[in-house]
Amino acid sequence: MALAVGSAAGAAQSRDGSAYYARANTLGILGAYSWDSSHMLLGSADNRELLNVGISYSRRLWMNHIVNWQYDGELLPVALESDPLVLDTLNWTSPTVMTEKATVAQVGPCVPSSGSFSNVLDGITYSYTYTLTCSRQWTIGEAMSPVGFQWNFLPRHKTQALLEGHGGYMYSTRPIPIDPAGSFNFTFDIGGGFERFLSNSSSMRIEYRYHHLSNHNTATENPGIDNGLIQVVYCFRLGRR
Description:
Blueprint: H1 2-17, E1 25-34, E2 49-63, E3 67-94, E4 98-105, E5 113-121, E6 124-153, E7 159-172, E8 184-197, E9 202-214, E10 225-237
């Protein structure tokens, strides 16, 4: 009888412990993409794209039956940013015949156009036709968000709503989003989503974040970029819990 009672108590404790869908330590493999930017809150650079690939690490800080509070940091060895480029082609017809081309990134979106110009100055006629065409340029960078927190709600359920926020930086191989803005930018994001547990040890997260990138006035210009970022993370347990 004593053995039976002890066995039943152990089974009940095991069932109660497994009622939470949560992990003490979690490693995630993530991918994120944003197809556009606009003046959502702080940034002013339009039509920028972001593409991130990296890993995340989460550590449980405190949990009850309502919320699971976690530290969450991210490392992004692949952080790509895309700017719209304007190719300006001038075809001079007077006083000499020649072609000039210039490619620049601007704060606003690129709008294709064409036209002509003619003016007489000191008896000399200056005339040309111009054509503005659009393309894109991807810039390679890396990013890190060492400060971050995540809150999962109702951790007894397989599907859990979550809120999160992160802060960090991005370093790019050339200045973004325009040349005077510099290559080092600070980042922060806030957002939410859902985490679906596939088992006690693995899960999938789908998140939407407001993501901001700017140099905090450490360069000549600071237009900043606001993106709506969609991120997917495959998570699995590190260790035994």
